[in-house]
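Structure in, sequence out. Go:
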């Protein structure tokens, strides 16, 4: 096992439909700070935040369904957003808390946006990293040609088997190379980090079918049920955005602020889509400042 994966406290939550793996630190009697990763990541993406915030919070980073050591339901339907939302609600309660400071990135952030819309009572404060509000994204996808072109991989992921084979045949080197090539501060994604990612995704039964099924399930929903969300996000919200994001346009983040009752957008000029790994110190400082307000 790579050195970066050792020395952490692991656990499992037995939710209604899945067994969810998580890593935790800090005093469980402190407020819950729940970290939810994106694609193609897992709990380890939050390594810098777990260490930093454990002194004041009960910090927990989960593996979403389909990832890491969490269960991986077969098929596309189990990855519909309604199940992802349900997992976060059940995880919060299973950890012994009634609400959380929810910190989320990419697919985790999309799930967090939706949780804030349908069950805001489970969120104390909402911290979103590099994903727009779902209606803001749909708006950009349909009106912003740059966003449409940047979303090419979402269409590629609709193909059966081919996306998984692309990563698997190269021993997931393409996955770790994508972090290295896209990140601005490449020294913050070390060889040890790369080995941790390749090790986790290369474990028997892991792979990328579950993670890619998130995109396949999303396309089914968009084709059958437009979002049509017409209410504001209630929890106080911080949006942190790495401006060198190659997949998502800043216009979506700007529009997202208008969809919240109270929100602040912080832009980091020298960070990529993987902002919490690219500029961890800045991200931690902005989160801490937001929590102390």
């Amino acid at each position: 096992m790579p050195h970066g994966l050792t020395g952490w406290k692991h656990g499992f939550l037995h939710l209604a439909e899945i067994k969810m793996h998580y890593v935790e630190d800090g005093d469980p009697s402190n407020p819950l700070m729940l970290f939810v990763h994106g694609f193609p990541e897992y709990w380890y993406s939050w390594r810098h935040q777990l260490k930093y915030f454990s002194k004041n919070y009960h910090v927990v980073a989960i593996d979403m369904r389909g990832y890491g050591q969490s269960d991986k339901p077969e098929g596309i339907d189990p990855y519909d957003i309604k199940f992802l939302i349900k997992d976060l609600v059940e995880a919060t309660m299973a950890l012994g808390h009634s609400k959380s400071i929810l910190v989320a990135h990419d697919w985790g952030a999309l799930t967090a946006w939706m949780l804030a819309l349908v069950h805001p009572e489970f969120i104390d404060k909402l911290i979103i990293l590099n994903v727009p509000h779902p209606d803001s994204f749909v708006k950009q996808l349909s009106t912003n040609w740059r966003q449409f072109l940047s979303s090419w991989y979402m269409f590629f992921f609709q193909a059966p088997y081919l996306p998984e084979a692309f990563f698997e045949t190269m021993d997931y080197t393409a996955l770790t190379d994508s972090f290295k090539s896209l990140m601005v501060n490449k020294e913050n994604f070390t060889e040890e980090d790369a080995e941790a990612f390749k090790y986790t995704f290369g474990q028997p039964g892991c792979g990328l079918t579950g993670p890619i099924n998130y995109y396949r399930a999303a396309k089914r929903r968009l084709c059958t049920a437009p979002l049509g969300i017409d209410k504001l996000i209630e929890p106080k919200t911080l949006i942190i955005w790495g401006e060198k994001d190659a997949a998502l346009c800043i216009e979506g983040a700007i529009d997202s602020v208008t969809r919240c009752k109270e929100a602040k957008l912080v832009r980091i000029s020298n960070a990529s889509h993987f902002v919490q790994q690219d500029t961890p110190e800045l991200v931690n400082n902005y989160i801490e400042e937001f929590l102390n307000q």
